[in-house]
Write a structure and sequence with these properties.
Number of strands: 8
Strand order of the largest sheet: 2-3-4-8-7-5
């Protein structure tokens, strides 16, 4: 059973979300559009390359699969950095906020990681999430 305080907090959040004209967070949109939980893991030795799709999304080419990783806001050097280092406590980088990607002067927290069979599926999921974000922002106005 939900407490009165929690219910009030949820109601306020729903009202504020309904009044907001900003775009939804890309992580939330990818969670919704892919049906994944965002906690995929990548063996760091399998990472062959990466690219930045937009400010908060990194595409990662790994040995057997392709991944999209979202980072927490405030990762300023991601798009301009020539190199990145994925760091974790163990040999895997996982979604869930415990691991990082380091670029230039930034230490960016990885929010979610989504796994795909190939690059085309990953980019199609990104495109679908971006379209859903735009539609949600348009509906909020």
């Amino acid at each position: 059973m939900i407490s009165r305080t929690a219910f009030t907090g949820l109601a306020i959040a729903a009202v504020l979300t309904g009044c907001s004209s900003t775009m939804p967070n890309i992580s939330s949109t990818l969670l919704d559009t892919t049906g994944q939980n965002g906690r995929a893991c990548i063996d760091t030795s399998d990472i062959r390359g990466y690219g930045v799709l937009d400010q908060d999304v990194i595409s990662i080419d790994a040995r057997n699969n392709y991944y999209l990783a979202t980072v927490m806001p405030g990762c300023n050097n991601l798009e301009t950095s020539a190199r990145a280092m994925f760091s974790s406590r163990f040999y895997e980088v996982c979604g869930g906020g415990m691991d990082h990607v380091r670029t230039g002067g930034d230490n960016c927290t990885i929010r979610n990681i989504f796994e795909f069979a190939n690059r085309e599926e990953a980019f199609a999921a990104h495109d679908a999430a971006m379209a859903a974000r735009k539609a949600a922002a348009d509906n909020a106005e």
